[in-house]
Design goal:
Blueprint lengths: L5 E4 L3 H12 L4 E4 L3 H20 L5 H9 L1 E4 L10 E4 L5 H14 L5 E4 L6 H5 L8 E6 L8 E6 L5 H13 L3 E6 L6 H17 L5 H12 L5 H8 L1 H15 L8 H8 L15
């Protein structure tokens, strides 16, 4: 099947980015959220990114206007019924996502493919909330979506080969590099990345070095563009903790135990850049 119209659920940083790249690839996109202020913020983000591209000469004003014209903000799930693909980019909460997909399953014709942008939750478990496990898949984009090339394409236990082919091809049409991953906690990216961040937090908690020096070692010694603690602040410490919990409970292995300092900082509301304070002050 060919993908035409797309609905993106969520107008936050990830949802807005996904809506933008889908529109840039020529698709009509419905971007849905639960409150008008979230929709307005998402559209403002897309406009700002496109305006910057115009200023740098990467696109012209007509192309910017065409991209914006193909994105239709909405508070209603109803338009999903007229799409070929729904990409969910809601907050990383299993029950919320399951409830959303259950509602979408009752609303959408059987041929509509469902994809989740989850960064760590089980695609198989999310698919079980629907009657279309064969047409359910993961599309894990990376932040910022318009700039980052990678998309993890996650196959659930029931994902059909045809669904995988369609979504893999679509990611390439979006200008991305897709990588196929089987459904295990954390997939590839976060199964490797989050324990590294967690270990950096342990180093800080145990007084091995300062946050600045830990990050300098990883930047200069390992050639990472950003140190693990600065990266954690960028991702959000609450998100890092949630993913570590998924790994810890998913594998029942103590090597994924979240660092107590990470838990303490999240409880204190020190969530990183978005709260103004994490391992660094912003």
């Amino acid at each position: 099947m060919a993908i035409g119209k797309i609905m993106v659920i969520g107008a936050g940083q990830m949802g807005a980015g996904i809506a933008q790249v889908a529109s840039q690839a020529g698709h009509e996109v419905f971007m849905r959220d639960i409150e008008g202020r979230f929709i307005d913020r998402g559209m403002a983000t897309i406009t700002r990114v496109l305006d910057r591209a115009v200023e740098k000469g990467k696109i012209d004003a007509a192309a910017r206007d065409a991209v914006l014209g193909r994105i239709h903000p909405t508070l209603d799930l109803g338009p999903a019924a007229g799409t070929d693909l729904v990409i969910e980019a809601a907050i990383e909460n299993l029950e919320l996502k399951r409830g959303l997909f259950k509602e979408l399953d009752a609303l959408c014709p059987p041929a509509v493919i469902f994809a989740s942008n989850t960064s760590s939750l089980s695609i198989t478990e999310l698919a079980a909330a629907t009657g279309r496990g064969d047409r359910f898949i993961g599309m894990h984009f990376f932040n910022p979506v318009p700039l980052m090339q990678l998309v993890e394409i996650i196959r659930g236990l029931q994902t059909a080969d045809e669904t995988h082919r369609v979504i893999f091809d679509l990611a390439q049409k979006f200008g991305k590099t897709p990588v196929t991953v089987n459904d295990y906690p954390g997939f590839i990216s976060n199964r490797v990345l989050m324990p590294m961040i967690n270990e950096a937090v342990y180093c800080l908690m145990e007084g091995v070095a300062t946050a600045e020096d830990i990050d300098t070692v990883m930047k200069l010694g390992m050639n990472h563009p950003m140190g693990p603690l600065a990266l954690a602040d960028f991702i959000g410490l609450d998100t890092c903790l949630a993913i570590m919990e998924v790994l810890y409970h998913g594998y029942s292995d103590s090597k994924y135990r979240p660092c107590p300092l990470l838990r303490k900082m999240v409880r204190a509301g020190y969530l990183g850049r978005k709260s103004g304070r994490g391992f660094y002050t912003y």
